[in-house]
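Quick note —
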Amino acid sequence: MASTDDKLELLKRVPLFAGLGRKEVEEIGRLAEEIDVPAGRVLMREGQTGQEFFVVISGSVLIERGGHDIRSLGPGDFLGEIALIDDAPRTATATTETNAKLLVLAHREFHSLMDRFPSVRTAVMQALAMRVRSLEPEAAH
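Predicted structure written out below.
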């Protein structure tokens, strides 16, 4: 288990949270639970309802869509935010490729955080826009 200071340092290095102030990062650290997950564990399934948002502390997570590998995520990467924002089914399946340490924020905590700290909501929206642009580079945005 990472110390509180270690957890905050990890959170500050996550691109999604990099522009946030200390108060916001501390609140994320307070709300996020650190979990150890064995290799091969499915974190979310494409088409199912999402209830959690994850930040990878260590290890790797494979993202698949339609049965095809999309990419691997590693330390500092995050996943699960899209389904939490629009309450729609997950857009991909995520499975740990190695033993992993993750921070997890549940649906209620994630929305509470965005409601109390508009800067977190803005950071999430910017990250989503970047993902859309990278997934559909030929589309007019």
